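Morning - PBG inputs below, output right after.
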Amino acid sequence: MRETHLNAHNFVLPLFVSEKVHQRRPIASMSGVFQFPIKEVADEARAAQDLGLQAVLLFGIPEQKDEQASGAYAEDGIVQKALRAIKSKCPDLVTITDVCLCEYMSHGHCGVTRIDGDHFHVLNDDSVELLVKTALSHATAGADIVAPSDMMDGRVGAIRAALDAAGFDQTAIMSYAAKFASAFYGPFREAAESPPQFGDRRSYQMDFANANEALREVALDVDEGADIVMVKPALPYMDILWRVHERFGKPTAVYHVSGEYAMVKGAVEKGLLNERDAVLEIMTALKRAGANIIVTYWARELARWLRE
Ligand code: PBG
């Protein structure tokens, strides 16, 4: 009588690849998660595929940051190199890339900024230009799906047009369509070395009090050509996930984020929760609520547990 079944193909494994490490480095805030050097990332991707996973989501940590995020769209940028390495070792694994500028910007914001006295602005259109360059360079290096996570307006349409014009009409877009300004991204910012140096992300990420706005944001991305729409974070936003799935009927993704992971890990390490039971319950609930794709740091373990 069970209505909801998990499958290893539902899960996407995030991989952090860093130009600054020579061997895998554990991320202190996220036990069990690592930054990988370029020379290890293809083996890691291969291991994920061997476990039955179908897709990885790549985040890059560059050696140098600047005010134009030039590492994000450099031909020999960290993600571009990782893509080539992964595609040569496991050509059938689906590669998804995070398209954002925060890891490459010296100030850590997701776009180009202008400072006026005490205020700063993120310049939407200037940022979109750089995001388009980044998405194109990822597609050129072998990305199957680009995943813009910046929340600038108009970026999905601009990326779609540029990909099509360059002959990448088969490259899909998974947009972080309803991404909330959340306290639960804290541990990730250590993992990706991308905390904002001033201000916060509330001028471009969504107010967590708003649901109708989330649906409007998703509608815009769908109109602009998003193939997959994402809600993020996961558990505190299951109402949004359900409504997005019901209303748009698009392939719907959810990102179970670093803070959500760290909360459960912390409780497991204190002996308060059984990890496997808790994680299987969370993931089943997300799928029941409408997620077709779940990005989770437990993807490997889930693939293993589902085989047993
Ligand atoms: C932005 C990005 C973030 C996450 C994924 N992409 C951080 C942010 O918006 O501050 C968060 C993922 C997580 O917390 O696990 N490049």
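Note: The chain has one domain: 8-305.

O.
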